[in-house]
What does this fold into?
Amino acid sequence: MIMNNLVAFPLLIPLLAGLIMAIYRKSIPFQRWFSLFSFSLICIISFYLIQQVSIEGIQILELGGWQAPFGIVLVVDMLSALLLMTTGFIGLTCVLFAFGSIGEEREQFYFYPFFQFLITGVNGSFLTGDLFNLFVCFEVMLISSYVLISLGGNKIQLRESIKYVVINTISSTLFLVGIAYLYAVAGTLNMAHLSVRVAESGQPGILTTVAVLLLIVFSLKSALFLFFWLPGAYSAPPTAIAAIFGALLTKVGIYAIFRTSTLIFYHQLEITHTLLGVMAALTMLFGGIGAVAHWDIRNILAYNVIIGVGFIVSGVAIFTPASLIGATYYFIHDMVMKALLFLLGGTVIRIVGSNKLKEMGGLIRNHTLLGWMFFIAALSLAGVPPLSGFIGKILIIQEGLASGAARAGFYWLAAIGLLSSLMVLYSLMKIFINGFWGETLLAQDMEKGDTKGLLLPCVLLTAAGIIWGVGAEIFYPFVEQAGESMVNPNLYIEAVLREVV
Amino acid sequence: METLMAIIIGILFTIGVYLVLSKSLLRIIFGTSVIAHGTHLLIITMGGLKTGGPPLLDGRAVSYTDPLPQALILTAIVINFATTAFLLVLAYRAYSALGTENMDHLRGINDNE
It folds into this structure.
């Protein structure tokens, strides 16, 4: 098998771009154009990778020529390739939004380089085939996010970023503890090799304990059940940064849950996956209650991120081929839609100059396009066909309700999933009705900020959301392939270890 | 040797958790640092402790030490160092901007209505 050097590019491009940009700190136009260039390049390369994976199967790159499991290996299967593509696209739109909204001070103080480093960490996490490398990529991503969340240094940001940094430092330490135990028991950290070793031993109690420890770590990172830090942290930074956090950071944690619970720890479903199901259900319920209760746009959106996390993970908890396909489909939909929602919410806050729903109204008169995009985003997240949320939801809920399946008994999870859709719809309609309908409180010349240049990224994301929903028939084979490699870990193992299992 | 290390790691974790649960921000940062040290010791212990075995294996070596955990903690220490440095700077900035390092005053209960 010939190794594919293209696999390393989604990791190298943002890293090099960030380093080059850091040198030309004063030249803002250069940094802007270079950011756009870098993200476009990531999109193109990951598109090409999707093509390659769909034709030739999983692509790998052994760094330095050391064969897996001894060396470090980068792996692209369909799930990673799709996520890389989405990441590139969301990065592109968020950076476009940042041009008009982030402000010159942040631009001069390394906003664009750290944005690139953040994407480096995210892409690295999607690419790596090694658990310790996953930890390192997490850290690259987190350290950039620490900088981005505290950049600007106003009081609220400082207060919230302290909590965010402390929580993440502790969860990273727990991740290391999990890795140490896993290494002691299994003697390897390569994911494919771990999968083989765990399958050989039949996953005894000690390995399940490690699996639960890792699950706690990833749920801290992805705000699955342990989400207490999220609403504060995600409502502190400026819109473009909050959007990239809401769309990507929690999703990396979910990706790690996907990988560990489908590739490595899938022998004790009644413990690990039931736990996942319970956590997902509670996440959806609590997130839903939070979203319904708040009257502050940023808080409502932050709680919507939490509900989305719960719903994606419930697809993994049910763990049938169709539910995994549904979860993958919903995963990508959720990334795009959360970015869109945060950008739209940020635009509204910019126009009104306040994030309190009771202080706004009637925006649709002067901002028709903004209003309708918000409406589409709300319907899509609630799962109204033919928009993109529908296909993921129907696959997951169908599998949850299916009796007689190998993993029956998840009707409660499906019911809570449906209930959470209702809560999402209610909370977003609350923004729509209070913000866009009613009496126009602000005349056009009294508005606090303009929407110049902010609508283009929103239009791009809305279009992507609609295409992802309406064109489901075209995308289904790719998503199906992503689901297939999760259901059948041997595909992954054969590609990485180059041996027939 | 492993038993002794296990006890030491346990003590480090106890101290770290106690510090993290206190209200002063500086103590919390020290706590995370102590927990991280415990973790590093845990990793090196998990690779098996030996005296006299080189970390490289050639044809003649009778015993050898596993080199991987050593590479792992080297990376982990560097990352932890960077995070702690950042956290200290952040704490200082927060202290000068907010005027307090007591976590009770950093809760930030703002009215959502």
